[in-house]
Amino acid sequence: MFNLKKAFKGLLAVSLVAASIFVMNPVSKAADTIKYGDVNNDGVVDSIDYAALKAYLLGKGTITNLAAADTNFDKTVDAIDYANLKKFLLGAITLPVGNPPITGKVVALTFDDGPDVTLTPKVLDKLDKYHVPATFMMIGQKINDSTASVIKRIITSGSEIGNHSWAYDSMGGMSYSAIKKSVDDTTAAIIKYSGTTPKFFRAPNLNTGGSMFDAIDLTFVQGVTCNDWVQSTTAQQRADAILAGARDGAIFLMHDVQPLPHPTPEALDIIIPKLQSQGYTFVTLSDLFKIKGVALSPTDSKIYTYLP
């Protein structure tokens, strides 16, 4: 069995005390850009990151930005990444700034009906476990001071936020002004609490029509569903439905928030490793559209479940 503590003895020649004398290396905080080594996401790669990564690998702490810890792009965070961070702090190597190119098959996980301070973190824990991002389609009236910490965690983990209306009212028969207010108020709340502007909209109950495409200046998405709003569906049944609909360019529609029992987090333990073993990479909706070369066109009346 791999012994992390023994690995550290071979990989590390200095202690955290020695690490405290390392020169701080500022890294610019460009939007949507990974600063490798900046595991606490403060814009600086320094001995604090070094200490945090060691604690994480020993199971004694957490880190804010898992993506930034994967310094060799192998989709795992381990003692090799820790050694790379040490070398960087000693000036022996440089660490990249930016996002590694994504090739091969790509899919996007999306989660509806949050945020929730209890249920959303259960999904985030699974995403962190497998080092994958997602897009959270949020209900505006749930975005407030009480859920601010969850929203911050979503953004710092490399995931993104989309718009799922203000109150989850079916909108096909609503007036233009009512539709616009629902969506615009939700966008304003997302901007206030996340510092990001949503690019995507998912209609409540997937109900579209009327003046929605005129009133909503966002790209519409649906997705492969798995009946995870039905309490009786098991984790395996949910996973089977997603896997059956998986293909390159797929959007998966799941829920971080539903009444209990809600085994969607457990379904992710089946879905993510299975698709990764088949060569799929999980990305946000923004990255899926970018990789597939599909322009964001809110006025074209299209609703996307698969991207070509």
Protein model, in words:
By secondary structure, this protein is an alpha/beta fold. It folds into two domains: 4-89, Type 1 dockerin domain (Orthogonal Bundle), CATH 1.10.1330.10; 105-304, TIM Barrel, CATH 3.20.20.370. 37% of the residues lie in helices and 12% in strands. It is built from twelve helices and ten strands. The protein has helices spanning 4-11, 16-19, 47-57, 66-69, 79-89, 119-130, 148-156, 176-194, 212-215, 235-244, 264-277, 285-292; strands at 25-26, 44-45, 105-114, 135-138, 160-163, 200-201, 219-221, 251-255, 280-282, 303-304. Strands 3, 4, 5, 8 and 9 form a five-stranded parallel sheet that branches. The chain has a three-stranded parallel sheet with strand order 6-7-10, with no helix packed on it. A two-stranded antiparallel ribbon has the order 1-2. It starts with a helix and ends with a strand. One of its GO terms (biological process) is cellulose catabolic process. It catalyses: Endohydrolysis of (1->4)-beta-D-glucosidic linkages in cellulose, lichenin and cereal beta-D-glucans. GO terms for molecular function: cellulase activity; hydrolase activity, acting on carbon-nitrogen (but not peptide) bonds.
Q: What are the SSEs and their pairings?
A:
Elements: H1 4-11, H2 16-19, E1 25-26, E2 44-45, H3 47-57, H4 66-69, H5 79-89, E3 105-114, H6 119-130, E4 135-138, H7 148-156, E5 160-163, H8 176-194, E6 200-201, H9 212-215, E7 219-221, H10 235-244, E8 251-255, H11 264-277, E9 280-282, H12 285-292, E10 303-304
Parallel strand pairs: 3-4, 3-8, 3-9, 4-5, 6-7, 7-10
Antiparallel strand pairs: 1-2
